[in-house]
Amino acid sequence: MPPPPAARIRLCTEFDRGTIDRRLFGSFVEHMGRCVYGGIYQPDHPRADQSGFREDVAELIGELGIGLVRYPGGNFVSGYRWEDGVGPRELRPTTLDLAWRSVETNQVGTDEFLQWAEGRRLTPMMAVNLGTRGAAEAAALVEYCNATSPTRYADLRRKHGRADPYDVGLWCLGNEMDGPWQIGHTTAEEYGRRAAAAGRAMRMVDPSIELTVCGSSNREMASYGQWEQTVLEHTHDLVDYLSIHAYYDGRQSDADYLASGEVMSRYIEELTATADAVVARHRSSKRLAIAFDEWNVWTTTPDDTATRRDDEIAVRPPLGEDRYQTLDAVVVGDLLISLLNHSDRVRVACLSLLVNVSAPILTRADGSVLRQTIFHPLAQTARLARGCSLVSSVDGPTLSSPQHGDVPGLAVAACREGDQNAIFLVNRTGEPLPVEIGVVDRPDQLIMEARTVIATPQRLAAGDPETAGPGSLDAVAADGAVMATLPARSWSVIATRDDRGWEDRS
């Protein structure tokens, strides 16, 4: 018999937040380090396709289960001329990327990325440069991507061999314009005007597109809250999404790190309240959504690849190639729980980045590619989190965090599609946690699968992450409840199906 529960979870299939947008499981490709060159694109690799993109990397991207990819930045976009990356490759200029102090060959640009995404059934999320450029250049890029008219940039796309438009539907109005590190950084007032002008021009080219405006780069910015308020005064009637970013640092105390999911939830709730207040002040019925289009953890193991001098300019230098540990995977799973629990407002999210740079997928010098520890909670969540996000009632222990105060010791998100449920759980505490899960209006459940990732004290070396995938979790269904003991500091998922009695046993 399982031990008596120390935590109880109650679900009702009639209480949900609505359908989960598949774009919640997105990622991000930026011209940074080895994300593009030596990551998704490596024409001299044995597994490269005829366009130069690595098929072995693409296979892992498919396994990861993402449905959306943001491109081309990131900080990179604020100094980027998209025209440099189109047309015959031999005629493209080699340019200086100021954001990452790198040499940009422009061998991958708009056409290559969009055709790569199209071939893998990935929805593109394109960003325009509002750091060093403006409305005219942004509208020109929309025309290049989406227009069918016999006009300059649509004709240029056709000249480059693409007759049909790409129909890119989701666009970012710049990147992190509140950050002093950003090329073209400016005030909220000026950015709000700049974004509104660009957005209107882009919509004149294609009225069907969705627009995302820059919110805070992180919750610790001095302008946090006020930035959003000012920017939305200029753009609330025009845009569809408020973009927010956050990276959670594994070098803080374990308790603070394990509270990251709760901190993310507060961040989302604070900024949805800010957006709602601006909209209400204008007596509008509009409901802005959140695009959490950069999120991730910074590993508990410091990056050992950023060894170049500050004044050195390099070709695809290895930047931020974190070697993730099992605790990082648990926290990523917790952050996914937060996103699921706010999926009524967070409609788009991008784990940053996709390959090599703080990424779930890592390519190595010997030509191989591997899954890092953080790959697994995203892949399992993207696979199982289908249908609607259910509201859960949780009675469990508390975790004391030095920086964030007392937070729930058990994080839970649940989803339902048809007669199937998926319950995602993180035990943030340092002790095993017996839990009881009850679906009050469907008490009889059959367990389909149960998996767990446990944060172990052992440090993984560069070649070890493939050994840190999810293991099995013992779970039983009896007496109208599902019971399991969650390991200390672990991420788990339990998938169940309604027991239809004699139908299931016939």
UniProtKB/TrEMBL annotation:
* Enzyme class at the top of the EC tree: hydrolase
Catalytic reaction annotation:
Hydrolysis of terminal non-reducing alpha-L-arabinofuranoside residues in alpha-L-arabinosides
Q: Which GO terms describe its molecular function?
A: alpha-L-arabinofuranosidase activity
**Any keyword Hydrolase?**
yes
List the SMART domains: Alpha-L-AF_C
UniProt-listed InterPro entries: Alpha-L-AF_C, ASD1_cat, GH, Glyco_hydro_b
What positions belong to coiled-coil segments? none
Please provide the record's keywords in A-Z order: Carbohydrate metabolism, Glycosidase, Hydrolase
Q: Any idea of its EC number?
A: 3.2.1.55
Task: Extract one GO BP annotation from the record.
Answer: polysaccharide catabolic process
Q: Which positions fall inside the Alpha-L-arabinofuranosidase C-terminal domain?
A: 293-490
Keyword S-adenosyl-L-methionine in record: no
Subunit structure, briefly? Homohexamer; trimer of dimers.
- Which family, according to UniProt? Belongs to the glycosyl hydrolase 51 family.
This chain's protein is named non-reducing end alpha-L-arabinofuranosidase
Question: What is the organism field in this record?
Answer: Microlunatus soli
